[in-house]
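Hi support team,

I've been running sequence recovery on a batch of backbones for a student project. Most finish fine, but this one hangs at about 90% for roughly twenty minutes before it completes. I'm not sure whether the input is malformed or the queue is just slow. I've pasted the structure tokens below so you can try to reproduce it. Let me know if you need the job ID as well.

Thanks,
M.K.
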């Protein structure tokens, strides 16, 4: 079992960058695949990026490919989402999630979720 806390969101202008962080508790962090998801008002939660437990494999939604980078530092029990060239359509509540062993892009496959951090991008 893990607990997740996101941070780093904020209000920025189009073209700016942000780095989100997800701090995980527990001694089993290294065994969990991690994902970032986002949810805009009136929309379902959607996949953004995933990273394997060892950090060797990553996956991105087409809408963020080339702009966002997911990474993890297992020594610090932390997962990051570096977001560059932000667009107004990136505006959403961003969630960090954890899943044992294997990565997945499906919301229902994740067992643990953070509280979310708001990212707002003005045009």
């Amino acid at each position: 079992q893990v607990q997740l806390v996101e941070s780093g969101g904020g209000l920025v202008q189009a073209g700016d960058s942000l780095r989100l962080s997800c701090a995980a508790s527990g001694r089993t962090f290294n065994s969990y695949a991690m994902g970032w998801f986002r949810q805009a008002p009136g929309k379902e939660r959607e996949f953004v990026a995933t990273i394997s437990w060892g950090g060797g494999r990553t996956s991105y939604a087409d809408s963020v490919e080339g702009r966002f980078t997911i990474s993890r530092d297992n020594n610090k029990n932390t997962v990051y989402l570096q977001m560059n060239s932000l667009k107004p359509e990136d505006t959403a509540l961003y969630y960090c999630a954890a899943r044992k062993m294997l990565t997945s892009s499906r919301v229902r496959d994740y067992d643990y979720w953070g509280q979310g951090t708001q990212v707002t991008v003005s045009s």
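--
Follow-up from support: It reproduced on our side and the slowdown came from queue contention, not your input. The chain has no helices and eleven strands. No action needed from you.
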